[in-house]
Amino acid sequence: MKRILILVVCAALLVISGNALAIQVLEEQKIDISKSDNVSANTQLLCIDGKKFVQTVATGYGTGAGVGVTIIQIYEAKTGNMVPVKCKEK
């Protein structure tokens, strides 16, 4: 019984790792938050599995050297329904 469970878990891990997300950076922009050098932020427009996302990474804000990361999926209204924005194929 243990062998069957181990085989099932291994097979599941192989399937999951084989379906890794395809991530592509479409656009990147550096943002000046303050005049000091210890604060910076980058914004990226990402294409993840054919859908658009915006990611912002801010570092060094405040008294500590912390990092803040946000990622937001972009949606649009089509025929009265909210649907994810798809990346344009090249």
Brief overview:
This protein is an alpha+beta fold and 90 residues long.
Structure commentary:
By secondary structure, the protein is an alpha+beta fold. The chain has one domain (22-84). The protein is 19% helix and 50% strand. It has a 4-stranded antiparallel beta sheet with strand order 1-2-3-4, with no helix packed on it. A two-stranded antiparallel sheet has the order 5-6. The termini are far apart. The model has no long low-confidence stretch (mean pLDDT 78).
Distance between the termini: 49 Å
Series of secondary-structure elements, N-terminal to C-terminal = HEEEEEE
Total strand count, please? 6
Please give the share of residues in helix: 10-25%
Radius of gyration: 20 Å
Number of helices: 1
What sort of overall outline do the alpha carbons produce when their principal axes are compared?
Answer: flat
Percent of residues in beta strands: over 45%
Q: How many domains make up the coordinates?
A: 1
What's the main sheet like? 4 strands, antiparallel
Main β-sheet, spatial strand arrangement? 1-2-3-4
**What ranges have pLDDT less than 50 throughout 5 or more consecutive residues?**
none
- Which class do the helix and strand fractions yield? alpha+beta
Quaternary structure state of the chains depicted: single chain
